[in-house]
Amino acid sequence: MDAALLLAGGRSRRSGRGHKACRRLPGEGRSWIDRQVECLRRAGFAPVYLLTGYRPRRVLNCLHQRVVRRHNFKRRHGPFSTLQVGLHNLSGAALVVPVDTILPPVPWLRRLRRIVHARDILAASPIDRWDGGGHPVMVSRRWAQSLHAVSVEAADARLDRQLDHLPATAHVRLPWNHFLRYPRLNTGREWRSARRRLRRKP
């Protein structure tokens, strides 16, 4: 089975006392992170790994779904080191998801899986109508092993830079006009804006 790596290793300092993954959508009793885990499971990802780093209890306090927990004890090396903790000893492909990413619909997540398995593709990701985006990223087992081998001290020890190294034939970028991403869900104002956009999402 393909795993999902839910990245929640950052400090989340600007979100206040509560972690941004603990915020709730209007009309829903579940937390944002519970919503993420449920969506990943519906798309067939198993197991779902929760990768923590700084102050993990803030995230765990609002998580009510079963996940496999992996903690980055070398979090001072940055977010790429947290990703590498999740990539360690994976038996298959994996979907890399920052905790503050709004996931595409389940059919699109399944499509990312099919693409990586059907061809000799190393990575697949959706993009928005402005050619932006990049998350979530589906990585093949072979490329996951290569990412795990990158030194955290390297200048290009970032997922976006590693993606830039891939030839166009190895990284499929799927255009989807309705794909929305919210890279900043830290402050209350940013969160309210994202919720309004999510309610308008078709």
Model description:
With 202 residues, the chain is of the alpha/beta class. The chain has one domain: Spore Coat Polysaccharide Biosynthesis Protein SpsA, Chain A. Helices cover 33% and strands 16% of the residues. The protein has seven helices and seven strands. It has helices at residues 32-42, 56-60, 79-87, 106-118, 141-149, 159-165, 188-200; strands at residues 3-8, 48-52, 68-71, 94-98, 123-127, 137-139, 171-175. It has a seven-stranded mixed sheet with strand order 3-2-1-4-6-5-7, sandwiched between helices. Strand 1, helix 1 and strand 2 form a beta-alpha-beta unit. Helix 3 (79-87) crosses helix 5. The longest helix is centred in the middle third of the chain and has 13 residues, at 106-118.
Looking at this protein, list some descriptive labels.
202 residues; alpha/beta; Spore Coat Polysaccharide Biosynthesis Protein SpsA, Chain A; seven-stranded mixed beta sheet; 33% helix; globular; MobA-like_NTP_Trfase; nucleotidyltransferase activity; Nucleotide-diphossugar_trans
